[in-house]
Design goal:
This protein is α/β, with parallel strands linked by helices. The longest helix has 19 residues. The chain starts with 8 loop residues before the first helix and ends in a 25-residue tail after the last helix.
Length: about 800
């Protein structure tokens, strides 16, 4: 059924169905919020001239008013899922009404999918009604079996929209701009004013900005979900004297009539939760509201009379607003959703959803549930998972309660509600526990103030949860939180910044000024979801022995042997780890030689080759005859070091060792015997002098070359050759200085030697300089002294 905001469908349709006489059983109507559920029930009971709990009742978390005579029961959406899981046939229930379905909450989508399956398999008599003011009706009608679409114009009044002349400047603070628009609305209109803010923080800041700016007969009242019911009722009750300005979150968008409101001021923002499977965390984002949300908000001004809606954006900006907000099933953490499906015995692919759940979010949810032991490796629910699904908290907290017992109930209650302290308080969760235990003492000893309404709710929830679990345990609060968040146990990294590596592999950071900044280990309970370095919003310190006690069966001993580029050496470690954090890290003193050698190969890749003269000469010879031998360029050798070098580098562990290491034997080992013979034949390693001395031949140039003393070549009558290539000879003086370089020794003896002899005799008279070197004896010694 489609009807505009203010048409009265929430309170009229259930009563009309009941009074039609076509339904003999109970009618269940779902509402997205507790305040709306209570007030819808109260309004219908008032219409019947009864009190709530008779014909019309409600059931919300922590509060139920029903009786044996109740025929219409208004419930929040999560309660329907519990009813279905406990009684799949929904005995005694003949009609399910999904009100305000356009909000597309995760529980509403899941509830409808379960109801459709029940209707198809177990209860073909079950009536299903889906109601909304702004929903695209055709897809939902098709989903529920081509159901008829009923459209009603209702009794709502016209609402005149007023836009800004131009877009709000980016530097203009939202709260100040909204306060200005509220002041304008108050002075230009009559009647109550309802202003929409994205969250409680903005409500408080707008309230401060309105101080002394509106008439004294105007009372500013906040309205948000975390308030207690009495305070919420005061905000939506008619004022007999003066005017009221209600500053509300999206709680006032739907299913709620505030009788004396005829003016709406829409800030145009909405706060949504976004889940990131890459981090496994959710974060709140503030973004532009959708057209559907804006329509719902504007409709609040036309419930009892013609109204006006002031919009904090220009008409042109409205044209680019999204038509609808994203369904929660696309953006939310699906852990509880996945566990419910597992309990039901179906996968998401087997169910009928208006929008399919996000696949990446499903995968992450399954991983979390397997980590908690709620699902087995095949994805089926375990006995432990069945315990968790019946616990009215997130599966992480249900896991903690199942292991920690009643002692964990206050912790679960604290984490299931808003923060007990303001965001200005340190992140230490122990402070929250102290505040819960003794508020007065806490406030007298610290500068922080406790949210009284939240405190009362948490205490009630803690008592309620505590009744569900027997026994006690000796675990500390930190250990119980580690049970809930085993993937968020953090170890502080070395360095000045308070950075932590989490057991799940992500990074997290604290302000250096925070009291936990120097903690060795923490449990990061709440993070902002930043994919790079998530900022820690709540945490508690935990010790290494506490971690070992809880997770003794999950600790892993491992060894590592790696090349460190920073230290320029092989580092061997013996570690005991929990997930991605090392609880102990000591040197691995007896690491096997082959393991160290393999790590050193990475060092060689990092450092590169630094050939000695002998190694360079060998490689030059190989490259000279490369067609007949394996390729030995530096790139070729680097690509195959695990084959030719690995067997030879035992004991080499650092850059200094590598610089001293002689690779010649390893390089020669690349060639087989035949290849070595061919190499020595084509490119011999040395030249044998007339004195039978071996001089290494250098092949790194245009000609193979050698250097030796001129006198050592006496008696050489032919020029040495390497195949068809003459050997380039550098002849040295007795002092080792070059005298002549030649590729024609015979020509040198015939032509240039006489001049060299003349010069050298004067410089080195003690050495022989025969007139005919071709017939002289080679020598490296000076002439013998004459006798006497």
């Amino acid at each position: 059924m489609c009807a505009p905001p203010g048409a009265g469908k929430t309170t009229t349709i259930p009563l009309s169905i009941l009074q039609s006489g076509q339904i003999s059983g109970k009618i269940i109507m779902l509402e997205p919020r507790r305040l709306a559920a209570r007030n819808a029930a109260m309004r219908m009971a008032e219409t019947l001239g009864e009190t709530v709990g008779m014909t019309v009742g409600y059931r919300v978390r922590g509060d139920t008013k029903t009786s044996a005579n109740t025929r219409i029961e208004v419930v929040t959406e999560g309660i329907l899922t519990r009813m279905i899981q406990n009684d799949p046939e929904l005995s005694g229930i003949d009609c399910i009404i999904f009100d305000e379905f356009h909000e597309r909450s995760l529980n509403a989508d899941l509830g409808l999918a379960l109801i459709l399956e029940i209707s198809n398999v177990l209860r073909d008599d079950l009536r299903i009604v889906v109601m909304s003011a702004t929903l695209d009706a055709d897809p939902i009608a098709k989903l529920i079996g081509n159901a008829p679409i009923i459209i009603s114009q209702g009794r709502s009044y016209d609402v005149t929209p007023i836009w800004l002349d131009r877009p709000l400047p980016k530097e203009r603070r939202f709260e100040l701009a909204l306060a200005d628009l509220i002041v304008q609305a108050v002075h230009e209109t009559e009647g109550g004013v309802l202003a929409f803010c994205p969250g409680e923080g903005e409500i408080r800041r707008v309230q401060t900005a309105l101080a002394d700016r509106i008439p004294k007969n105007c009372v500013v009242m906040p309205l948000f979900g975390a308030m207690d019911f009495a305070a919420q009722q005061r905000a939506i009750t008619v004022m007999n004297d003066g005017r009221k300005v209600v500053l509300a979150t999206s709680i006032a968008e739907t299913s709620l009539t505030i009788p004396d409101i005829s003016v709406v001021v829409d800030g145009g923002l909405a706060r949504r939760s976004r889940f990131a499977p890459a981090t496994g965390m959710s974060r709140l984002v503030t973004e532009r509201a959708s057209k559907a949300e804006a329509t719902q908000r504007m409709g609040r001004a036309g419930r009892v009379r013609a109204g006006i809606c002031y919009k904090l954006w220009s008409k042109a900006e409205e044209g680019v607003m999204a038509s609808f907000a994203p369904a929660e099933i696309e953006t939310a953490d699906l852990t509880a959703f996945t566990l419910e499906l597992a309990q039901w015995g179906s996968s998401a692919d087997e169910m009928e959803f208006l929008t399919p759940p996000n696949h990446a979010h499903l995968t992450e949810a399954q991983n979390v549930l397997k980590m908690l032991g709620a699902l087995d490796e095949t994805g089926r629910i375990t006995d432990h998972g069945k315990t968790l699904v019946s616990t009215p908290v997130h599966p992480r907290l249900g896991h903690m309660l199942a292991l920690g017992g009643a002692k964990a109930a206050p912790i679960a209650a604290l984490l299931s509600d808003r923060d007990l302290l303001d965001r200005t308080a340190p992140v230490d969760f122990a402070l929250r526990m102290s505040a819960l235990k003794d508020r007065q003492n806490f406030e007298s000893q610290t500068p922080y103030r406790v949210h009284r309404q939240t405190l009362d709710r948490v205490k009630q929830d803690a008592t309620r949860l505590g009744r569900r679990f027997d026994g006690s345990n000796e675990f500390s609060a930190a250990q119980m939180l580690a049970m809930a968040f085993p993937d968020r146990i953090g170890k502080r990294r070395k360095g000045d910044d308070a950075r932590f590596v989490l057991s799940g592999g992500k990074g997290a950071i604290l302000d250096n000024s925070d009291a936990l900044a120097n903690a060795g280990y923490i449990v990061a309970i709440e993070l902002d979801g930043n994919p790079r370095d998530a900022r820690i919003l709540q945490a508690i310190q935990i010790t290494e022995p506490e971690i070992r006690e809880v997770f003794s069966d999950s600790l892993t001993k491992s060894t590592s042997c790696v090349w460190s580029k920073r230290d320029r050496r092989v580092i061997t470690r013996l570690q005991e780890t929990f997930g991605n954090i090392a609880l102990s890290d000591t040197p691995w003193t007896n690491a096997p030689d082959d393991v160290v050698a393999n790590a050193m190969l990475d060092g060689v890749r990092d450092l590169g080759f630094q050939w000695s003269p002998a190694e360079a000469r060998f490689l030059a010879r190989v490259r000279l005859v490369s067609r007949a031998l394996p390729a030995m360029s530096d790139d070729d050798l680097m690509a195959s070091i695990d084959e030719w070098l690995l067997p030879h580098i035992s004991g080499i562990t650092n850059a200094q060792d590598w610089r001293k290491f002689n690779c010649l034997d390893a390089l020669r080992g690349i060639l087989n015997w035949d290849q070595m013979q061919r190499l020595d034949t084509i490119a011999p390693p040395h030249f044998t002098t007339p004195l039978n001395r071996k001089i290494p031949i250098d092949y790194d140039g245009d000609y193979p070359s050698i250097e030796l003393r001129l006198q050592e070549m006496f008696g050489q009558t032919t020029h040495p050759m390497i195949g068809q290539t003459p050997l380039r000879i550098t002849l040295l003086s007795p002092a080792g200085r070059p005298v002549q370089t030649t590729t024609d020794l015979v020509g040198f003896w015939n032509n240039s030697y006489a001049d060299v002899r003349k010069d050298m005799r004067g410089r080195y008279p003690k050495h022989p300089w025969p007139e005919d070197p071709r017939h002289a004896d080679p020598t490296l010694r000076a002439k013998p002294r004459p006798n006497g």
